[in-house]
Every structure is written in structure tokens, then in C-alpha cells.
Write the C-alpha cells for this entry.
Amino acid sequence: MNADTNSIVSVTEANQNFSEAAQLADQYDPADEMQAASDEDVLSVSERLMKCNRAVYEELAK
């Protein structure tokens, strides 16, 4: 993850001007940096996790 040095605010500055720091935080959208996974990738990972944790799931189902 890369930090945007233009949006870094010191604690002192944030304390002095909280509304400006809050507006800056509202402008940040972490979804902009995320990549969507394909359905096949999600299903593949889900199946692998279910296989690895099968005993736990069976115990929880009791």
C-alpha cells in the first residue's frame, strides 16, 4: 500500500483543525485501490477453506 503524502495530517494539525482533517478523511475511498476478484477465484478459495476446515464445520453443525 502506498501512502499519499499530500493527504498526511499531523496529530497537532488535526487537533487544531479537526473539520479539515475530517473532510480529508472523507475524500479517501479505499475501494478505489481494491481489485475485484472473479467469481471463479472466490469459489476456488471458498472450496479450499471448506476442505481445510471441514472437521471444524462438522463440529459446529452439531
